[in-house]
Amino acid sequence: MTTQAGESGCAQTPPPAEMPPVAARPSPARYVLAGVLLAAGWAAIYQGLAPFSAWFTYSLLRLPHGQHLSAAVEFFVFEVPKVLMLLTLVVFGVGIIRTYFTPQRTRQILAGRRESVGNVLAALLGVVTPFCSCSAVPLFIGFVTAGVPLGVTFSFLIAAPMINEVALVLLLGMFGWKVAGLYMGTGLLIAIIAGWIIGRLKMEKHVEPWVYKTQVGLAATEELLDFPARIRLGLQAVREIVAKVWLYIVLGIAVGAGIHGYVPTNAMADLMGRSAWWSVPVSVLIGVPMYSNAAGIIPIVKALLEKGAALGTVLAFMMAVIGLSLPETIILRKVLRPRLIAAFVGVVAAGILLVGYLFNLVM
């Protein structure tokens, strides 16, 4: 008696389940094309900001030409989107670069270097390595316990907050590449020389003893990232950093707009001009206890310069605010004794004073 296959006593083998399709990764050409299109759109919007701010001020709001309020509004409407666009672009690029420089890798690069070479490397790495005042203590402990000399560690701690991507992009957007380059060059020089001097002072005994007893583990392996992952981290940096500083930018530009529109040029030139020899040290003394960041202070700096303040005086003020912030100094007290903190502040302040007078002399 014949039987159908389906009626046999043996269970039939079910057909193999269909495997879900594997998503194809975008090709490099797609990333290049997307980047070109985004860059073209970005450039077109950027070029239209100046005519838009004029149209907004004088056609839409119908404010009269030559008035204080008109100048302040046009300044504000032009600078806010310009600075935010520049900041987004640069933070994205630096965010990708930072994926190659983790804190662990930075410590490994600096550990065991000759001190003079280490000062230069530390200052350069400070520009591209994630850093803020709240991370001063763990970074300091990690560097010292990894064998990085004290002076080299300070070169990094000085350069990282002073020469960050926010400061450079704002300077580039508001003053051009020459001023941005001068600021970066002099900031690096201050970080290198100040770190070298602190290293020569042999002040290791003024580090809190518990720091040297701390064991900081180094990562045995680092995650290998492909380029799409680095792009995602660059976008994450944009979301985190721009979200954190945009309000400071708007407030700083608002103050700058008020100075631009209402403060008399002669008054500012008399207060912070080249002829006032005392303006540089007074600006540094005012700047040291202040707490702000590049996003908040640089728009004010631009307005001061447009009103006749001397470039060296204004740069000294800005460096004092960014590079010698009071919160960072207070946080460092957890790992440093007062004499070493005083040496750190004094050496950096002296370098800032020198830069201020030098710029006033030659610019």
**Number of helical stretches of at least 4 residues:** 17
Structural class, from secondary structure content?
mainly alpha
Query: What value does the Rg take, in angstroms?
Result: 27 Å
Rounded mean pLDDT is: 76
Q: Beta fraction of the residues?
A: under 5%
Low-confidence stretches: 1-14, 216-222
What would you call the shape?
flat
- Main pleated-sheet profile: none
- Per DSSP E runs of 2 or more residues, the count of β-strands stands at 0
Q: Give the N-to-C terminal Cα separation.
A: 109 Å
Helix and strand pattern: HHHHHHHHHHHHHHHHH
Work out the helicity level. Answer: over 70%
Summarize it.
By secondary structure, the chain is an all-alpha fold. Helices cover 71% and strands 0% of the residues.
Structure description:
The relative contact order is 0.11. With 363 residues, this protein is mostly helical. Helix 6 (136-145) packs antiparallel against helix 7. Mean pLDDT is 76; it is low at 1-14 and 216-222. The chain has a domain at 103-215 and 231-362. It has 17 helices and no strands.
